[in-house]
Specification:
172 residues; mainly alpha; 9% strand; elongated; transmembrane; transmembrane helix; membrane
């Protein structure tokens, strides 16, 4: 195995060590390709499936947070802005939590000698560092959304809205 990514794996004349197939695997392909089904136990260990699930959840919830942010900026009333900011913070915290679980799992198991061949030369790459940076930024943005929601609540308490009545009490 030359390299393994979240949804793609690359081989260069790889042969399954447990089964002597007449086929060598060469090139980069999608991890769920039909030809790779015979070696799925090698390329998809349980910890890597967990990493895929949690990082996919993190990505999907981050996309949902982006949609909520666009809704907040375009069509939210000031009264609903506080609730929307809290919801946005909750979504981002959940996305960051899922990303944290996936990064910790991959950091603990991805560098082991039992998964990738030639394990002494396998190192966590820059993409792993970018994943940590992205999750850290998700936590920061979630905290900033909570701070902004709190400021909006204080602002609403300082300046209560005046309600005007449409009903008239006297004659003209």
């Amino acid at each position: 195995m030359v390299s393994s990514r979240l949804w793609e794996v690359c081989f260069e004349n790889f042969r399954d060590p447990l089964h002597l197939y007449d086929r060598y695997f060469k090139g980069c392909r999608w991890i769920f390709d039909e030809e790779y089904h015979v070696i799925s136990d090698i390329i998809l260990p349980p910890f890597f499936v967990a990493v895929q699930w949690f990082f996919t959840f993190s990505f999907v919830f981050h996309l949902v947070a982006c949609i909520v942010l666009v809704m907040l900026q375009t069509c939210c009333t000031p009264q609903k802005e506080r609730v929307t900011l809290r919801s946005l913070a909750g979504i981002l915290f959940f996305a960051a939590f899922c990303g944290t679980i996936s990064l910790i799992t991959f950091g603990a198991e991805g560098d082991s000698q039992y998964w990738m061949p030639d394990w002494k030369h396998n190192h966590l790459s820059w993409s792993f560092a970018c994943g940590f940076l992205g999750v850290f930024v998700q936590y920061v943005v979630a905290i900033l959304c909570l701070v902004e929601a709190r400021q909006q609540i204080k602002k609403a308490k300082r300046h209560p809205q005046i309600v005007y009545s449409v009903e008239g009490g006297g004659k003209m």
